[in-house]
Amino acid sequence: MIDLNHIDDLARRLSDLVPPGLRGAPNEALREELQQSFKTALQGGLARLDLVTREEFDVQRAVLLRTREKLEALERSVQALESAQTLPPAGQH
């Protein structure tokens, strides 16, 4: 899952980009509302991306690597068996 602290930080930074004229005490509520809107939009957008965590990615990468190694070993075994079949039996020429 995505760390909500990162989303909060990004929403805070986006709200800090609001023009200085809107940042005063009377506009603090507006700034907080904008920050919440940014946060909601970011969470919604990221949720639609169907992302995986780094840990999930690393696990699947390791599984793929092991599978590839097994496949390569099987290919070598099949090649050795096929080579053995094409050779004439010992003692025959």
TrEMBL record:
<comment type="function">
    <text>Required for efficient ubiquinone (coenzyme Q) biosynthesis. UbiK is probably an accessory factor of Ubi enzymes and facilitates ubiquinone biosynthesis by acting as an assembly factor, a targeting factor, or both.</text>
</comment>
<dbReference type="GO" id="GO:0006744">
    <property type="term" value="P:ubiquinone biosynthetic process"/>
</dbReference>
<dbReference type="GO" id="GO:0005829">
    <property type="term" value="C:cytosol"/>
</dbReference>
<comment type="similarity">
    <text>Belongs to the UbiK family.</text>
</comment>
<comment type="pathway">
    <text>Cofactor biosynthesis; ubiquinone biosynthesis.</text>
</comment>
<dbReference type="InterPro" id="IPR007475">
    <property type="entry name" value="UbiK"/>
</dbReference>
<keyword id="KW-0831">Ubiquinone biosynthesis</keyword>
<dbReference type="Pfam" id="PF04380">
    <property type="entry name" value="BMFP"/>
</dbReference>
<protein>
    <recommendedName>
        <fullName>Ubiquinone biosynthesis accessory factor UbiK</fullName>
    </recommendedName>
</protein>
<keyword id="KW-0963">Cytoplasm</keyword>
